[in-house]
Specification:
Elements (H helix, E strand, L loop, with lengths): L1 H42 L3 H6 L1 E8 L5 E3 L3 H14 L10 E9 L2 E10 L3 E2 L5 E2 L2 E12 L2 E12 L25
Parallel strand pairs: 1-8
Antiparallel strand pairs: 1-2, 3-4, 4-7, 5-6, 7-8
Amino acid sequence: MYRKLLLLTFVAALVTVGHATMIRANDERCVRDLISKWDVAYRALDAKAMVALETSDFELVDRFGNWFPQTSREENERMWAWGFANIYQGKPGPKHTVERIRFIQPDVAIVQARAYWADVITLPDGTRVPPHGQITTFVVVKQKEGWRIAAQNVHNKMQGDGPGERSPAQLPWNQDGIKQKK
């Protein structure tokens, strides 16, 4: 009897772990799909489609450190539409490639995506932003409607950055055989 109970407990634990692993894999796929849909809308300069993928209280920290907390989907759509017209000037931004997804909780994840601006960006005030790399950090949350983007933070890397930039695994402190200088 004791062996049967132990075996039943073991099988139940395996089923629970397997189920949790399947849920996590499904959630990761859904998060990747969300960022892919965001990227398509972003590159199409489609403010309405982008807003549909975000929470109503979405927040953006732009490449210059400006914080834009939104109070409604309408305000959010106006923000993106203004940016596409005045900053992007009708030219699509670069493709974003997901580098990492990290689940903080089952319904919250941080997504790191990399992009590279090959052209100069000229801002409405005449400021010219040279070609550069960019890491965009998304905070995504699972809601009744599915996964949505709650926050986005853009970080530019201005020097020594480009399409061939090193991944975290290629950094000196992550390479085997590297000796530390004293």
